[in-house]
Write a structure and sequence with these properties.
The chain is α/β, with parallel strands linked by helices. It contains 29 helices and 18 strands.
Length: 601
């Protein structure tokens, strides 16, 4: 029987890594011991190696269920680049490739086969695989199995039957996002007995978390992107139209911004995705149709031009940044319109009431995170049932917030809502508070209310922010069927009548320009990122990736290039000791890398 030492040897010789990442070894041990496994590991924790290593040290074929063709294509390319016999069966294959993969299975030389859940559910393929002898079924993005998951897919729900058709093969399910209810549902649907479950945790300490009320999204995003001029990242939009407009606007501002959404022609989508994967300094402006199928480890930032659908979706989408473990940046813009639209979508969906109830809860958790008075990371991890100390590098920790007794201001808001019959949205309420005699205010006689002008001491934006927090705190609810009118909740009524007090957050301060921050910036400017060798290696990587038609990270990752820059290896032996340089890559690229090092000096 293969041992963990065998897996560690393959980890070094094939993949070029000297040690397991946290959490990997325990999962690999369990798989090698023949146990069924459910593993919840953060994006970037190295889930793929947890089934790839057992596949390479054991006899037989490992089937990997993957939701997207692009993801299969890139993972197969990365494995082949490391000298691993891997293939995929999907609709993008030409007949020659499909025949080659099937022949390798018949001959017993293929170690990993990637396949979609729809394709695997077909009786003919399942029967063919059962005859070949499958040693492990690995189900990636396993939250898609569960009706409680944020991305439920009916075809995933049939994988329990597929497992039985394959002969009750050993199975492992992997995901980055699954709360307790989702994990229980996955286990019941996929496994005949309770699997060995690993929940590594949800913290991604290399990600900087930031959120900001939406005022001028293009201007706010441009300021954010200005810190990442030579780096690649993703900006998510809520609609296709928003994608097109923002990509054009960012292009006008000098960014290399490419659109991606399901409405574009397939050839355009593929060309834009290939550019993003093969070149540096590309901003992909996209709907959520982009991301799950992109296994690019060196995404340095993710921004949201509008709120995600749920807190799980937020976690998964920001998790596409910094998968290589290096620092990465995130920014989410949010507003009342986003909140209103999402609640309307949930209300109007055809989902059962129980599912709607959970969707409301998940979205409310995201609203609370947006308006959090303390460390973002603490608030996010608390939702997933984890505790932590303040992280020190989210926007709230860096800038700090001021809390104040906002009972009086909250009562002003609630009073204006009550005195106007709970029939109006935020802008009308704000106009009343600041004493703005709009046409509607005068026509309805609301300029004669006792609350008219009581909040003149604050700007409209301040009142908008306070209303969002009052909403996040559950003091009011939004009547999505009544054009966004506010309704006072039971708790809000208690505040209005003076039975409860309210503490709210003042505006988030700008991060302090401390000596520590300036010193860190100076070190960054003088570190590997400013080294001419890194620029030369990036150019080499782009050329090789285009020549081979693979993503740039398949050639070598940012982390590998930075290690090469720091070590400056002068022969193949020293280069082979660098992070991520396995035997196959050393043979394939070694001489060109050494030549690039010599030329850079």
């Amino acid at each position: 029987m293969p041992t963990i030492d065998d897996a560690l040897r393959v980890l070094s010789t094939t993949f070029g890594y000297s040690a397991f990442r946290p959490g990997q070894e325990d999962v690999v041990r369990a798989v090698l011991d023949g146990e069924d496994v459910l593993a919840v590991m953060p994006t970037g924790a190295g889930k793929s190696l947890c089934y790839q290593l057992p596949a390479l040290v054991r006899e037989g074929l490992t089937i990997v269920v993957s939701p997207l063709i692009a993801l299969m294509r890139d993972q197969v390319a990365a494995l082949r680049n490391n000298g691993v016999a891997a293939g995929a069966l999907n609709s993008a294959n030409d007949e020659e490739e499909a025949s080659r993969v099937r022949a390798a299975m018949r001959e017993g030389t293929l170690k990993l086969l990637y396949v979609s859940p729809e394709r695997l559910s077909s009786e003919s393929l399942a029967d063919f695989l059962a005859r070949r002898g499958v040693s492990l079924l690995a189900i990636d993005e396993a939250h898609c199995v569960s009706q409680w998951g944020h991305d439920f897919r009916p075809e995933y729900a049939r994988l329990g039957e597929v497992r039985r058709r394959l002969g009750d093969v050993q199975t492992m399910a992997l995901t980055a996002t699954a709360d307790g209810a989702t994990r229980e549902d996955i286990a019941q649907r996929l496994f005949p007995r309770a699997p060995r479950t690993f929940v590594q945790g949800f913290d991604r300490p290399n990600l900087r978390l930031a959120m900001s009320p939406k005022t001028d999204a293009p201007r706010q995003l441009s300021a954010f992107l200005g810190r990442h001029r030579e780096e690649s990242g993703i900006v998510y939009c809520a609609t296709r139209n928003a994608v097109e407009k923002l990509a054009e606007k960012l292009g006008d501002l000098g960014y290399r911004a490419l659109p991606y959404h399901a409405g574009l022609e397939q050839a355009v989508r593929q060309a834009n995705q290939d550019t993003f994967l093969q070149e540096d300094g590309v901003v992909m402006v996209a709907t959520v149709a982009f991301g799950m199928g992109v296994d690019k480890p060196d995404v340095r930032f993710v921004a949201h031009a509008a709120m995600p659908k749920t807190i799980e979706a937020y976690y998964q989408e920001i998790g596409r940044a910094g998968r290589d473990g290096a620092p990465a940046d995130t920014l989410t813009l949010y507003g009342l319109d986003d909140m209103r639209l999402r609640r309307q979508q949930i209300a109007e969906s055809q989902a059962p009431e129980e599912v709607k109830r959970i969707e409301y809860r998940r979205f409310d958790a995201l609203v609370a995170l947006c308006e959090a008075p303390r460390c973002r990371r603490q608030t996010l991890l608390a939702y997933f049932g984890e505790t932590s100390e303040p992280c020190g590098h989210c926007d709230l920790c860096e800038g700090g917030v001021t809390l104040f007794d906002a009972t009086r201001e909250t009562q002003m808001i609630l009073s204006a809502i009550a005195r106007t019959g709970e029939r109006f949205g935020s802008e009308h309420i704000v106009s009343i508070l600041v004493g703005d005699e709009t046409e509607q205010v005068r026509r309805l006689g609301h300029d004669t209310l006792r609350t008219f002008g009581v909040g003149r001491d604050k700007a409209k934006n301040e009142w908008r922010g306070l209303i969002r927090q009052v909403y996040a705190g559950g003091l009011v609810e939004n009547d999505i069927t009544g054009y966004g009118a506010w309704r006072i909740t039971e708790r809000g009524d208690a505040v209005l009548r003076g039975r409860e007090t309210v503490t709210l957050r003042a505006d988030v301060h700008a991060p302090k320009d401390t000596k520590k921050a300036r010193r860190a910036a100076a070190l960054a400017d003088s570190g590997p990122s400013s080294d001419p060798l890194l620029k030369a290696l990036r150019a080499l990587r782009t050329r090789l990736a285009k020549d081979e038609g693979v993503p740039a990270y398949v050639v070598f990752t940012d982390r590998t290039m930075i290690d090469i820059v720091e070590r400056r290896p002068d022969d193949l032996g020293a280069l082979g000791a660098c992070h991520g340089v396995g035997k196959a890559k050393l043979e394939r690229y070694g001489e060109e890398i050494l030549a690039t090092i010599r030329e850079a000096g």
